[in-house]
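FIELD: query
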Amino acid sequence: MAWPEAAQPRAPAAAIAVGGTGMLAKATRWLASRSARTLIVARRATLFIAGQTGMVAVNADWNAAKFPATLQRAIAEAPAIGTALIWLHDPEPALAWLLPVLPGARVVLVLGSVSEAPTLPTSAARIATVRLGSIATAHGRRWLSDDEISDGAIAALRDGRSRIVGELGPVG
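FIELD: result
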């Protein structure tokens, strides 16, 4: 489902990037450059934001029982989140508590090639998914580059449409 033209993302007061400091670093920086404030949620978020303005680090420890409350508090203290970019290896458990604290956000959820689309609550109608595949070459298939992955995420952030980057199927 695409966002209606009137609902296209415009410079939100705040944004959030969850797990966006590795292969999605380019997309995270793109999002942050269009937001007044961006929460960066990652294992090494503090390192990622070093020297950057407008970014706030939330160092993630997904195994800590108190982490959901820590992140929910950081979101509550931020200006209204207008856009969210989310990459998690196992998104379904976190989405259950994360989506309710992002009620007005336009969410782009990045999924690996072998990830099944998670079961989303009915309140999550404004989620665009980006499924990551592989690329055919003369010598077989290859994984996507970080730039290709980020470009797919940026396209989804721009137009709100779900998409597949590359082709889904076995690599090898």
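FIELD: remark
The CA atoms of residues 38 and 55 lie 5 Å apart.
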